[in-house]
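Q: Could you fold this chain for me?
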Amino acid sequence: MPRLATLVGGLLLSRGARRFASRNAGKLALGAIAWRLFSNSRRKRR
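A: Sure. Below is the predicted structure, expressed as structure tokens.
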């Protein structure tokens, strides 16, 4: 049951998230790229 609830919650949230993403697609893409680079550099240091 909890899985279903999270799935439904995710779908409901995704509508609002889609609007947000379409407005801020460039910022989100830059953020995602920056996060990948950051996490990769952290892994390499270990």
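A (continued): The chain has two helices and no strands.
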